[in-house]
């Protein structure tokens, strides 16, 4: 697999690596690493596109194009879903229904956003009865570096590429080294839909000393939009600091759920099952800390453990499969290190805690058991650090204030979910969560016009609807003396 630069697949003098199938450990493909020269070509191609016809397109033209792209993604839905499921090991049904469906929705949502966006203007009163008119115009940010992770590769990529292109930017995309396939397929779809050469470029590779670093340090890049770990966010901030470039960061989480005794327990257990175990726990929004009001702790613990046992780990093509493997053997080792740590810290393991034996040719894959603990406290690292696996700790609380204090006792601040039938409490507790996204009686329910992002270690800035325009455009204020 090669990078895609200036409208075509591109050779590079960089190395190559095996893209490993997390389902069984087999090699899916060889991926060519972009060297500094190819990254430079990609940035130059993006700049040339901005200086050419793409830089002169109207908002209306781009909105039409974004809708056409959405249609093309849907036409090739099965191909995208198979590529996504192949790279990640996630169930094919999920790849179809969530990842690919959302990719198309992202392009439609940002077509609508740019078509509807306006700017306030101000009539300024001056001495002597005169006036001035102030209004601002948006211009594209320029060449945007888009760096994304492996957990929801196409969904997260299009969440950034759609607003970037709708606003008239050109992009250089670096997908995760684990999931190169759908970023390359998207290049073909964009070209078919009529996106000019150089507007969307893909460079494959790693972070430090590879395409990620070459891209973020490139002087021709005007801004970096990044989804990934907080540690990589820090490295990217360092890389762009000498040239003071814009960043938008969607980073890690250590997300809490708060379950009150008055919650609808059936609905809560169904919600928690999703929020803890969806995508094998590899969603930045996944719950890893569950605070439960003491009277219902036992019921929630046993109900959630029962549902965890009922999850079906298996081949992604099997429609009965609910849960795939982790992304890699290396990531499984990281998650297992937290499983060991939890035990050493005296956790009671309600379910899971190890590696399953699935047979059927799957034992070379990165499989892991869904796991729940009780008995941990905030002094324990599994309660403080993002694990990014199918696991959570349950902790009792006695008062609303205690629940809020515990939920907010983290350096992260991405998402929280509050489960209660008390309407007033739902609102007040949700608002007291120190996070970017606070849900009541649901989880991962998104309106793409609403702001998305995190506080503290979870990120910088908000994307979504008009919030995305604030990152992907620069404002120029025009002041006219009347
Ligand atoms: P990661 O930070 O290791 O890698 C993300 C991307 O950054 C990859 O493409 C990687 O190659 C690249 N990269 C790594 N080092 C780099 C460097 N020095 N310079 C430039 N690029 C570099 O993250 P990951 O393991 O791929 O993904 C998991 C993480 O992503 C978790 O922490 C998760 O919470 C986070 N995440 C956050 C959100 C969100 O919206 N907040 C969404 C999904 C995932």
UniProtKB/TrEMBL annotation:
Cited CDD domains: ALDH_F8_HMSADH
Keyword Transmembrane helix: no
InterPro entries: Ald_DH/histidinol_DH, Ald_DH_C, Ald_DH_CS_CYS, Ald_DH_CS_GLU, Ald_DH_N, Aldehyde_DH_dom, OHmuconic_semiald_DH
Family matches, as PANTHER family: 2-AMINOMUCONIC SEMIALDEHYDE DEHYDROGENASE
NCBIfam families per the UniProt record, alphabetical: OH_muco_semi_DH (TIGR03216)
Family: Belongs to the aldehyde dehydrogenase family.
Protein name: 2-hydroxymuconic semialdehyde dehydrogenase
Organism: Pseudofrankia asymbiotica
């Amino acid at each position: 697999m090669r990078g895609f630069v200036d409208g075509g697949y591109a050779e590079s003098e960089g190395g190559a690596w095996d893209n490993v199938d997390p389902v069984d450990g087999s090699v899916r493909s060889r991926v060519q690493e972009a060297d500094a020269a190819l990254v430079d070509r990609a940035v130059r191609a993006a700049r040339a596109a901005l200086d050419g016809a793409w830089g002169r397109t109207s908002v209306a033209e781009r909105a039409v194009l974004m809708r056409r792209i959405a249609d093309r993604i849907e036409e090739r839905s099965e191909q995208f879903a198979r590529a996504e499921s192949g790279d990640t090991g996630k169930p094919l049904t999920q790849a179809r229904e969530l990842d690919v469906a959302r990719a198309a929705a992202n392009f439609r949502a940002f077509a609508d956003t740019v078509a509807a966006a306006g700017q306030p203007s101000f009539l300024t009163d001056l001495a002597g009865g005169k006036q001035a008119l102030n209004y601002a115009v948006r211009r594209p940010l320029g060449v945007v570096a888009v760096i994304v992770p492996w957990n929801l590769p196409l969904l997260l990529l299009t969440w950034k590429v759609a607003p970037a292109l709708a606003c008239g930017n050109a992009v250089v995309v670096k997908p995760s080294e684990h999931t190169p396939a759908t970023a390359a397929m998207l290049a073909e779809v964009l070209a078919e839909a009529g996106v000019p050469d150089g507007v969307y470029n893909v460079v494959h590779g790693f972070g430090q000393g590879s395409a990620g670093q070459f891209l973020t340090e490139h002087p021709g890049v005007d801004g970096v939009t990044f989804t990934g770990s907080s540690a990589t966010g820090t490295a990217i901030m360092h890389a762009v600091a000498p040239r003071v470039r814009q960043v938008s960061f969607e980073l890690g989480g250590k997300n809490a759920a708060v379950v009150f005794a008055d919650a609808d327990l059936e609905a809560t257990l169904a919600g928690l099952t999703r929020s803890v175990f969806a995508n094998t726990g590899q969603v930045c929004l996944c719950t890893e800390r569950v605070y439960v009001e003491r009277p219902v702790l036992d019921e929630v613990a046993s109900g959630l453990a029962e549902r965890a046992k009922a999850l079906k780990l298996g081949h992604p093509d099997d429609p009965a499969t609910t849960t795939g493997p982790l992304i890699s053997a290396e990531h499984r080792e990281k998650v297992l290190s937290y499983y060991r740590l939890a035990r050493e810290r005296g956790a009671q393991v309600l379910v899971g805690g190890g590696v399953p034996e699935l047979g059927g040719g799957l034992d070379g894959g990165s499989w892991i058991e869904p796991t729940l603990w009780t008995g941990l406290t905030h002094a324990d690292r599994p309660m403080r650090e993002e694990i990014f696996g199918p696991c959570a700790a349950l902790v009792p609380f006695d008062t609303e204030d205690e629940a809020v204090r515990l939920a907010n006792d983290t350096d992260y601040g991405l998402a929280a979910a509050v489960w209660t039938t008390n309407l007033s409490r739902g609102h007040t507790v949700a608002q007291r969560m120190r996070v970017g996204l606070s849900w009541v009686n649901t989880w991962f329910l998104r309106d793409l016009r609403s702001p998305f992002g995190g506080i503290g270690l979870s990120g910088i800035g908000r994307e979504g609807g008009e919030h995305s325009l604030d990152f992907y455009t620069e404002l120029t204020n025009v002041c006219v003396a009347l």
